[in-house]
Amino acid sequence: MIDYKQSSMVDIAFDLMKKKKKPVDFYKLWQEVSEIKGFTNEEKDDNESLFYTNITLDGRLITVGENRWDLRSRHKFDEVHIDMNDIYADEEEEAPEEEEDDGLVEDDYN
Asked: What is the pLDDT of residue 63?
């Protein structure tokens, strides 16, 4: 049996997700993890963003849209892979064009 009190929040979430058959809403997952850890309301508030950051960085869990999370192992690479070249290309297309600076200073005295 796993000692959840000594486990990390992400390890608990991973173990919970292994028992589930479909994606789970972040807040539902967070509620379950915080109950297992025995957090007070203040500890829940203090640790929520840390938990979100950690599951994002961990790699075993992925977001499948609409703030729902699932095990990466249940999804094909093509479904969850984000090509960073596409993201940077989109940013370049959206960037406003800057006016050329001809080095001249205009005055309003005329």
From this structure: 87
